Amino acid sequence: MSTSRYNEGNTRAELWFILLTLGDEYPLIFKLGFSGLIGCITNIEPKRCIKKMRKLAQKNPDFFQYMLKIIPIEFNCETDLEIIRKIVHENFHQKVKKEETFRLRVNKRNCALSTLEIVDFVADGIENKVDLKNPDKIVNIEILGKLAGISFLKRDEILSIAKEKESTNH
User: Fold this and answer.
1) Are 88 and 128 in contact (CB under 8 A)?
2) How does pLDDT run across 24-38, given as a tens digit for each residue?
């Protein structure tokens, strides 16, 4: 989850309250060691949690003051291209149908590898059609130093609070 720099403490409190409101009495919310980012483990299934948060943002956009973007993570591993590729390839056809298009999206911090290097290595051997502008699924890879998170997402499974606030104002 992202927030503006130096608002991590406020964001953690806001997230704790929101998750409590959504039914998780004991969320685990923690610093990730990178300015503007926090992590969370919740009892609510991550994609279901995003849907609930989106409904809350649409109903009352001012409820969110510090959170900027929330991306659910399905798999965690060390930042090793072989491991990342293995996770993506082992789960790809369970998460992405043969006829669906996809995009590999990489966000990285404190990583010497280039985005192109990561995309080329991980995508090699995947036969589904690529669509960079309007994919059916996004294979999202978040790299934070030695740790990586991987998700297979539809576009609406990434929650941008600013976009939700903008859409409710129209």
Assistant:
1) no
2) 999 999 999 999 999
